[in-house]
Structure formats: structure tokens, C-alpha cells
Amino acid sequence: MATLVLTAVGTAVGGPIGGAIGALIGQSVDHTLFGTRKEGPRLVELAVQTSSYGAQIPKLFGTMRVAGTVIWATDLIESRSTSRGGKGQPSTSTYSYAASFAVLLSARAVLGVGRIWAEGKLLRGAAGDFKTATGFRLHLGGEDQAVDPLIASAEGASPAYRGCAYAVFEMLQLADFGNRIPSLTFEVIADEGVVLVSTIAKALAVEVSGAASLAVGGFAASGGSVRAVLEMLGQAGGAWFAPAGAGLLMRDAAGATVAVADEGFAVSGKGVRRARAVAAIETVPRTVTVGYYDAARDYQAGVQRARRPGAGVRDLSVEVPAVLEAGAAKTVAEAMLARAEAGRVRRTVAAGFGAMAIAPGACVTVAGEGGVWRVADVSIEGMVTTLGLVPLVAASLPATATSGRVSGAVDAVVGATILRAFEVPGLEETPLRAPRMTVVAAGSGAAWRQAALLYSVDDGVSWVAAGATAAPAVLGTIAVVASGAPATLVDRRGVFEIVLAHADMELGDADAAALDRGVNLALVGDELVQFARAEPLGGARWRLSGLLRGRRGSEAAIGLQVAEDRFVLLQAEAARTFDLPLSVLGREVRVMASGVGDATPVETRCVMRGASVVPPSPVHLGSFAEADGSATVKWTRRSRAGWRWIDGVDAPLSEEVEAYRVTVTAGGTAREVEMAVPFVAVTAAERAASASVAVRQRGVFGESLAADLIVPA
Description:
By secondary structure, this protein is mainly beta. The protein contains seven helices and 48 strands. Mean pLDDT is 86; it is low at 1-37 and 266-272.
């Protein structure tokens, strides 16, 4: 007696099937074709990155998220950068670490890679932008694939991994990952669009053909054997396999049917009669649960369940390592449950010698009974062919289901670096002893974090590595310019409207106490301004009001702003400061930054006019008439060390000596005098000729801007 059961496909599908299917008579072919069943693919196999020798590499179809296997890596690569300290201060060395490595993704060629996750957060966005600095190359797995140049340079002779897709990271910066190679997962695009399960079966075993209708967004073929993979595909898609020439046909619909009749033949003196058996309902699972990958959840595992009423306690759980929509997964679960219920019925038909041509997997109709039946097995004894039949179930209607609440990784754009370098009066109470340049930066996208810095004090002849930028700054440009207002009063009428670099940047209000502490101090053009009220106008646009103008001696810049001038919120954590040699005074310093989103380095320039080290100009200039017709002009000095003026008396000098250069201009003639006291005499003749007085305080590093007064006649 020979028996052929062809409800599934075995390990021999991976190799030649040849004439095995045709040799149905006189031999037992079930084990020859299929071998022993092995464990099929599991959902968890794709989620954890490995580096073990001999680890299985899946064959990918459609679009899948996989962790892959690390096949090559360098040791951590240490870099050191040194930034100069201020005068009398030590320099600071900072260390950063990077690594280069390769990850094998698929045992068949792919089309590309989309997003990449590192520790669950996006390392590469949907637009192909990296959130952390790295070099990246993808080898698609072609048969003419070349050896990666980095691996070749490090290892010498090395394989090209032809036929396998792999990714190479070069100098991935590890600061965001605890200075270790992070666990990565990749969105791999192996085929365009959805893929039929029959197409996958054909790719895994060339002897298989057919057109099963279940389509998946992606699939990872792995597990113990080809048989196990194809069994799982058939189980999920409601498909079965039938002989077709020297191969197998995968089908999930009846197609052409063969009419058979139970002829009641006698075999070995016994009559073989038509038999119909129905198993108890308890043999059918009460629920069928399908695990799958849900693209709406960034390819994380999802679960859909179908439930039937009635008796029974058994549950069936099936893992399908395929990408499905929630509704499609629900439909698969309901279809599996419907097939399980229909499978309670078992039909046996005894046919004549001519029925030997009917192979397992064929679809038949039985005389006198309705419906279409699938041939599950064929037994031949004597001249009688016995067919074991199960009813063919109609396709389930599409089900509706939800993926649940989706909380995917944020795909914030890094964008290009926005760089600002400037010199402002020292913001500390202790006067600076060297010219100081301040550098702030941000990105046009919310995911921008930092950029590498260089600066040059000799117009680019040489460059100084200056480490990285500080925390992202809040910066933008001026859209509406406030009218001029005195620096001695709170400007309650004027408003600035500014546009920040992107909508995720925010500003806040400040009360009087906060303003007194220096909160909401911003560089607006060249003027230092504090604002009490920040009103969002939508998008990245804000209106600033309640203004304190000309802070820290910057009153000379009041009213000089134009649209598109810079706006920078000054925050200690967002600023990098560089104390430079005295030789830079009066010269231009070039600053260059390079971030993850920059195709080329970004450059800006800062003219060092001495604002950080020269004294502020005097204030409270007044003219006092004398009895002889002359006048005395008096003023109050200000100090780089006494911005708050908390004791009501003269601010501390903070310079080596008190000294002023005074220019008196009258009738087209100017005279200069050097003063060591805060007053100067204007003669009666000069006064009569409408004299003007300009006073500059002299400091260690240069003179202040002039404070001017017209002396009344």
C-alpha cells in the first residue's frame, strides 16, 4: 500500500523533487519528500541584534524591520579635543568615542534601507537623514558586489558577501549611546510593494509555483527548514500544495474540480463504503490568536484574535513573521478558525482504478453531495483508490481591526546648522581679561543636537579645533523692528516680532524679579534687550513686549536693527565662549561648524571690536553754566565690574586707572583733552559757538564708545 499526504511541503523542496511525485505507486514517499518537521520562524528572531558565529540570516521579502547580525567591528576609536581656557585658566580636554562596524541584514539581495532605529529611537529618518554623525554605506547583495573598502583596509583579504545585503557604519559617534555600539534595527526594502505568499514560496523553492492570493507587506524567511517556512505560509494564507509536473503547485482556491463517485468496491473481501465522520466541537480551538508585524506600529509585534461561541477550552496561537495590516491579520485569524471548524468533517470515498490520477491537493465534487472537497490523502489497494476528503472553505470576508494606540519613534528632522558668533559685553560681574567670542548654534530641525567647531584668527590660514557646540540655542531672525526707545525706561509700547528657526523652539514670560536676575536677555541685531512678555503668534513667530533696551551698555545699537537681523536668546547652557589673544582686536574671526545635517560646513564671521573688554561709555552727561560764561560738563562712569550698581555710589573702576579722552568741537574746530576726573571745562567762546562734547572712557584694552552732549549756548 502506498500513501501520499501532500498537505504541506518539506525540506526536500529546497532541492530537486524530480520524479518523486510521479512515483506514487508501490512506495512510501511521504518521508522521502518531506523529512522530519522542524521549528518554523518566530517573531522574536528578528528583533534582537546578534554577533554570534553561525547565526541564521533571514531571506527578506517586501519591507521588514530586522536587527541583523554584526559581522565586523573595530574597537572604540577615541578622539580628544582641547579648548583654550581664559587668561590664567587651564585648557580643557574633551573625549569622544566612535566605532565602525558592519551588519548583515538579508540572505538575498534588497533594494534599499529606509529608517534605522538605535535603542528604539530613530538613528535615520524616513527622509534618509541621520540624527547622529556617521558614515554609512549599504551593499545591496548583488552577485557582482565588491568588498567594502573600509573592511578591506582594516582586514586585508575579506569577503564581499555576494548575494547578501549588509550595511557598514563608519565612525558612528557613540556619545548618544553610552559610548558603546547601540542595538540597531533596520527597515529593509527587499521588494517594491506587497508580496504574494506564493511568490515567496517560489523564491524559496524553485519547484513551487502557484498564485495564492494572500499578500503581505513583508516577510522574513528563517527557521529550521524550508518546509517549516512554507507550512507556515500555507497555514496563514489558507493554501495547500498539489503535484504539478516535477514540482508543486501552491493554491488557495478550488480552480478546476474533478467529479468522483463512491463505487463501493470490495477490497480483500471487504466492502468499502462511503463514510462521513464529524469530530466533536471541543476539538476545534475556542480562539485563534495570530501574532504578526504591524507596519503602523513601526513593525513592532501585534496580535489579533478570532473567537467562536460554544463549548471548548483550547486556544491556538500562531506566529506569522510577516508584515500585515491589523485588519488583514484579523482576517487571517478568522479564516484559520473557519477552516478548523470545517475540518471537523472528514469524508472517505472509494473510487475505481481511474481515480489513481487524482493526487493529494486536487479539488473534487462528490456525486450526491454538495460543496467542493479537497483531497487530503490517497490510498491505493488492489484496484480501489480511496480518497480522504476535507471540505473546502470559502474565503473569509475582510475583517476590520485596529492597531491600537500608535506611539512610534519621533522622526524629527535634524536640518542644517544655524551658526551665530558675536562679541558682547561680559555677562558676569567679574571683568574679562581677554577678548571673548561667543558661539551659539541650532538647527533648522528639532532633532539637531550639536556640531563640531573650528575657528581661525588668521583668515583661514590655520584652524583651531574647538570641540563641539553647546546645547541647541533658541535663535531666529527679526520680522518686525521695534521703534527706538530710551535705555533708561521700560519700553511698554515697542514690540519686536521675531521668527525662530523652527516651531519647536519656545520663549517664555518673565516677571520683574526674573528680569532683575537677567532672564530673557537676547541679542537683537547688535542690541542687548530683555523682554517681559513673549506671545506666540503661530508657527515659529513670536511677539516680544515689555522691553528693557540697550542692556549692558549696548544702547548705541538701539534703533539700528533691520528685518532679517539676528535674534539670539542668551543662555549659559547654549553658549560656547572662547577667550582669544589681544591680537584679534579690530580683526575678523572665522568660525566653522559641521553637523549631522550639513552637506558642507557652515561658516560665519565675527568682528572683534572689543565689546567684551572695553569699558562702557559714561552716562548722565550734564552741562553746568559758570559765572564767567564757560560751562562744566560732568558725567558718571560705568564699569565692566559693576553692572547692577547695588550700593548707589560709584561703580568699581575695574580699569588700572580712571582716564577719559574728551573731544570738544565748536565752530568746526575740535580739541582733545585727557582727563583723570569725570568732568571737563568748556570755554565761553566754545560755548558761544554751540559746542558739542564726546567723552570716551579709557580702559586696559581700549576706549569705550563715545557719550555725546550738546552744550547749550
